[in-house]
Amino acid sequence: MHKSRKKKRTNLWIVPAAALVLLAALALRHFIGRPQKTAVPEIPGSQASRPATGDIQSLLGTLTDQGFAVRVLSPGADNSRNFLIYIPPGYPLVRANLMINRLALAENYAPSKSLEIRKRQRLDLTFISRNSLVLNITVLKKRAPAENISNLPKIALVLYFWPPEKPALADQFDKIAAIKTLIVKGSYRSKDREAICTATMEPKGYPKNDPGPNTILVDDPSGKIKNKLDDAAAAADEPAGLYLWQGSRAVEDARITDLIASYCSRNQLILLEPYPTAQSLVKKSAGANSCSYVNPDLIIDPRTSANSCLSQLKNQLAKTKSRSLILIPATENAWKALNKALTTETASQYEFVTVSGMLQ
């Protein structure tokens, strides 16, 4: 009897062991069967919204390799990057537009503005990167070489300021064919002559010495200066340049001269400085911004007598071997002197051109 009870007691461990095995199997099946979650790294919002800026130099280098002439201009009012690009005369503007847009998109710049001015053969393009860097590109065609080049000295006779104080003088000056360029202070809508508009700048002694409204002041913000330049250029339908009037203080300020030179370069305007001094930065800024710059070889004062005006004209013509830029006041004395100086014999010895014609 004792032996049989002991055998029955030793087999009882099987039941709990089997239960443990079954529970372990169910648990293993439950956890293995569930799909595992993939860990997703958290991306900072700044990285998603502001990717790396495109490589401007790579874009411009590609354009240079294609035969385009690239010029770097001064930064704009909003610290934008400004560039001037010349394409060959026979290269279509549409094709240049497509190429530049393709290259800009490849460098993460999105197009913001695309304006084609067919009459002036010009493109104004603006691109913005994801980090808000503005890229302004002005595209122009290179001028074709002038045909029938004359070997005669070039003379540019320029009247200032137009219209004359005496209205009757306007008709008299219109009869002098050798005068092809006017410096205008008022509105000029005729297309018979080339027009250079007047940009009035801050002189030393301001405000006691005040040239009048719309004067470009040294303390003006960049945007306001652009607006004043726009207003000055609007005096003519097709301005050829800007004439810097007054400005003895402004021309010595690098920010002002860079803004004006960059504006003229983007708008294909000649920058005419009548009285350059050693302290003036206009010519330096014009060179840095690939802007056409000229200064006169002779300026005749409005108070000059007819005889003195005639003498100055004859002397300048006699010593001109290549080209001369002569500024003549729109006065009655100047008109009398021109009629005496521009004889048939004198006219045959020179080629009278516009100011832009001197640069060709």
The CATH superfamily of the largest domain is known as Glycoside hydrolase/deacetylase
Identify low-pLDDT runs. 1-8, 31-53
* SSE series: HHHHEEHEEEEHEEHEHEHEEHEHHEH
In whole angstroms, how far apart are the ends? 134 Å
Please state the second-level CATH architecture of the largest domain.
Alpha-Beta Barrel
Specify the overall morphology: globular
Count of individual domains: 2
CATH topology heading of the largest domain: TIM Barrel
How much strand? 15-25%
Number of strands: 14
How many helices?
13
Provide the residue-averaged pLDDT. 84
Assign the CATH class of the largest domain. Alpha Beta
What does the main sheet amount to? 9 strands, parallel
The rounded Rg comes to 37 Å
User: What structural category arises from helix and sheet content?
Assistant: alpha/beta
Helix content: 25-40%
How would you characterize this protein structure?
This protein is of the alpha/beta class and 360 residues long. The chain has two domains: 53-141, Beta Polymerase, domain 2 (2-Layer Sandwich), CATH 3.30.460; 154-358, Alpha-Beta Barrel (TIM Barrel). Helices cover 36% and strands 23% of the residues. It is built from 13 helices and 14 strands. The chain has helices at residues 2-10, 14-33, 45-49, 56-65, 93-106, 168-174, 222-233, 254-266, 282-288, 306-319, 332-341, 344-347, 355-358; strands at 69-72, 81-87, 109-117, 122-129, 134-141, 154-162, 179-184, 194-201, 239-246, 270-272, 293-294, 298-299, 323-329, 351-352. Strands 6, 7, 8, 9, 10, 11, 12, 13 and 14 form a nine-stranded parallel β-sheet that branches. It has a five-stranded mixed β-sheet with strand order 1-2-5-4-3, sandwiched between helices. The protein starts with a helix and ends with a helix. Mean pLDDT is 84; it is low at 1-8 and 31-53.
